[in-house]
Design goal:
Layout: H1 5-12, H2 25-37, H3 45-57, H4 70-78, H5 85-101, H6 105-118, H7 123-139, H8 143-157, H9 162-174, H10 178-191, H11 197-209, H12 213-226, H13 231-243, H14 247-259, H15 266-278, H16 282-295, H17 302-314, H18 318-332, H19 335-347, H20 351-363, H21 369-383, H22 386-396, H23 403-419
Helix pairs in contact: 3-4, 4-5, 5-6, 6-7, 7-8, 8-9, 9-10, 9-11, 10-11, 11-12, 12-13, 13-14, 14-15, 15-16, 16-17, 17-18, 18-19, 19-20, 20-21, 21-22, 21-23, 22-23
Length: about 425
């Protein structure tokens, strides 16, 4: 995970997250003793003048018509031949920071490591170079090095910095050490003055990678308390409930996500529709599919139209179900879709339209010819087309599966036609 160059540059020049000191009384005293023992030196006059010249090059001068020249500053500083250990360390860390700002992280690491290893800088500067080494290592995806340098930084400062714990959590996550990922994220959460999303995100990712969805749910619930308007917690939470087969909570979470405008993928709404259907709200399932097919989010293809039709069928909305299946049939040319249209229209007593659908299914070579012909007997009968009904009944006598049913219809059609003086 690359850090942004803007953030990196800000850290290198001294703008960093302020940590929270949380040592015990004994360790605080020990730390103060270490600080007092730390020598405080200044640059030699000769080196100081050159550094001042370099800093001047880093600043644009409009009066002289001169732009900032970081490369010139680096060249000037590289040419200095310091003798004192302190001068060497100070120059090295300064040059390293300039290399980092120029994007040459390899040279930056080399220079700043040299400065850190000399261990002669002031307390704040030594702490700073150790932290910068960790940040640069993270930038270069050298995660174990980042962990090591942060370890040295903590040993040196005894400071509980939530940003450092977050970086450590990220490093361990990249190394697939999920236990440590969670431990460091928890420390980041513990010592943060204000809640930050990143540690929760790292914890959630660690639990997802280990398929520990129960713990992932806990993380999301905790995060939502602090970040209720951040959609990145709501949809994963709903999905984790699904993974744990807690469908009631999955449905309520998806609904809340929808109300807040957090659902933006076809899969979100097809899942929501499935949950509505599962919990006996098929009409809502159907209208959810319809709405988002109309908007274009869900593709209006034969498969999705059939799903919507099935939900309408479950809701006993037979005409609406037939409409969806008919739309699917026109796209798919699947005789099964036309057969379902016929069945639904027959239930709705729309026999004429049902006949049209059944006949279309037969023309397309439906594998369910026998059942369709039996259905056509009934449809034609209720339309008063006794001759047609009788014809299909006679054809159905050839089917072993439907022979007995056809025989029953033949007798019934004959009696009805005779009573109504209709010639069949």
């Amino acid at each position: 995970m690359k850090l942004s160059r803007l953030i990196l540059t800000a850290v290198l020049v001294g703008t960093s997250v302020t940590g929270t000191m949380m040592p015990t009384q004994v360790s605080a005293k020990t730390l103060e003793e270490k600080k007092k023992e730390r020598p405080v030196e200044v640059m030699s006059e000769r080196v100081g003048k050159k550094v001042a010249e370099a800093i001047d090059l880093l600043t644009a001068n409009e009066e002289e018509g001169r732009d900032a020249d970081p490369k010139g500053a680096i060249k000037l500083l590289e040419e200095i031949e310091p003798k004192k250990e302190f001068d060497k360390a100070y120059l090295a860390q300064l040059i390293g920071k300039l290399y980092a700002q120029e994007g040459d992280y390899k040279k930056a690491l080399e220079k700043i490591k040299y400065a850190a290893d000399l261990d002669v800088l002031s307390w704040d500067d030594q702490a700073g170079v150790l932290k910068v080494l960790a940040i640069l290592s993270l930038q270069e995806e050298n995660y174990q090095d980042a962990i090591n340098y942060y370890g040295k930084w903590f040993t040196f400062t005894e400071e509980h910095d939530p940003a450092v714990y977050t970086h450590l959590s990220l490093s361990y996550y990249q190394l697939k050490n999920y236990k440590k990922t969670v431990e460091q994220a928890d420390l980041a959460i513990k010592y943060a003055k204000e809640p930050k999303a990143d540690p929760y995100q790292l914890k959630m990712s660690a639990y997802v990678d280990t398929k520990n969805y129960k713990e992932a749910i806990k993380v999301c619930v905790a995060a939502i308390k602090y970040f209720p308007e951040d959609k990145k917690w709501w949809v994963p939470l709903a999905q984790f409930y699904l993974m744990e087969e807690d469908y009631a909570r999955a449905l309520s979470t998806f609904e809340l996500s929808d109300k807040q405008g957090f659902l933006n993928k076809a899969a979100h709404y097809t899942t929501l529709a499935q949950l509505y259907s599962m919990y006996g709200i098929p009409y809502k399932a159907a209208t959810t599919m319809q709405q988002h097919m109309k908007s274009g989010l869900i593709e209006k293809d034969a498969k999705n139209l059939s799903v919507a039709a099935n939900y309408f069928h479950q809701a006993s909305e037979y005409k609406k179900a037939a409409e969806q299946y008919l739309a699917a049939a026109k796209l798919s040319k699947d005789p099964e879709h036309y057969r379902k249209v016929g069945d639904l229209l027959a239930i709705a007593e729309e026999y004429k339209s049902a006949v049209d659908a059944y006949e279309q299914a037969l023309e397309l070579g439906s594998a369910k010819e026998g059942s369709i012909k039996v259905a056509l007997i009934e449809a034609h009968f209720y339309l008063g087309n006794y001759k047609k009904a009788y014809s299909y009944a006679r054809e159905s006598l050839q089917s072993k599966q439907y022979k007995r049913m056809a025989q029953g219809w033949i007798g019934y059609i004959k009696d009805t036609a005779q009573r109504k003086n209709v010639d069949i």
